[in-house]
């Protein structure tokens, strides 16, 4: 271990593994360490007995739930946008050869007390029970505008400058009502709160386009894809990638103490009496607790069920977003469900998550609106975890720290953090203009 590396990565969470892979592909000499004896850190995947031990403190789960090894329960479950930045990153690094994906069945939103399919094309808008007949026409016109919008072609802008016009002002021009604005902002553009309404509309329009492109790409009933056997495969795929490009991996390294010089710049990492020297450190917040601050908490419930979520057209994999306004909350609530169709549970079993930014100290009560959508559950676990973000200045100490995972059940915010960190570490933008045909799903 007494060697010099350009970058030492601490923790094998998904963000750290993606960065390790990207840097290795760039020819950077990387050492990747983890204090745990398993991959994934906070975003690991557990079998049933591990899940039982974590939440119930008992070694063995009851037999009626099926074989422990047939469960792959992701601790940070998130669907991938079929045309999004994570899929582009996977293709850019050729990690797709280690993974198999399958399209996700459904994308839904909770509006006016009901779970409804998210409409995103003018045709779907006309069929959607979310809106009355006149609102359908207005939404159809708005979706057509978004579909035709090309940032580089002023003819498609209808005389509107979306870098100046706010989302609220743009939507007002189409006369859309509150509920329509709600599902577009939260379930299509995937904003996590309502701040976007007072920000330039370009971001929302480009997010809507990404949703529509992702939906068209796999010609499915949702824009999302998910790996077979769950996300636990992802960190290991990036670990393999890093190894192919000369990266070194060391699991089960206790303590992992980061060393600094007199100026406060990182010089290396010590574990078990040996020090590996480096110029830069990439890590999750747990490795440098004095350089992060708490920014909130996430409340979540994990349920094992024997049926799909009701009112989702028997979807075996589905996301339901509950916009904050629908529950008079400050943040959205997310419902995620996956099943044996993605090989994350035994035949006939479904795994559901309900998550949100905690606003109280009682997750059971706070998550009730989401849990009520699940129907009967075989087992349910509750959990609250703290979220942290870095407060250091990387240009002064060369420490690049990821932000804790949020409550969302899609990857867009996670990938934004990874790409931002990549730019801070390397000083360059990652080129994601890749041939997307390289990623395919099982059905294709």
TrEMBL record:
Homology family: Belongs to the Rab GDI family.
Full protein name: Guanosine nucleotide diphosphate dissociation inhibitor
Pfam family, one: GDI
Keyword Transport: no
Molecular function (Gene Ontology), one example: GTPase activator activity
Cellular component terms per the entry's GO annotation: apoplast; cytoplasm
Residues spanning the signal sequence: none
Record keywords: GTPase activation
PANTHER family membership: GUANOSINE NUCLEOTIDE DIPHOSPHATE DISSOCIATION INHIBITOR 2, RAB GDP-DISSOCIATION INHIBITOR
Biological source species: Raphanus sativus (Radish)
One GO term of the biological process aspect: vesicle-mediated transport
Function: Regulates the GDP/GTP exchange reaction of most RAB proteins by inhibiting the dissociation of GDP from them, and the subsequent binding of GTP.
Entry keyword ATP-binding: no
UniProt gene name: LOC108851260
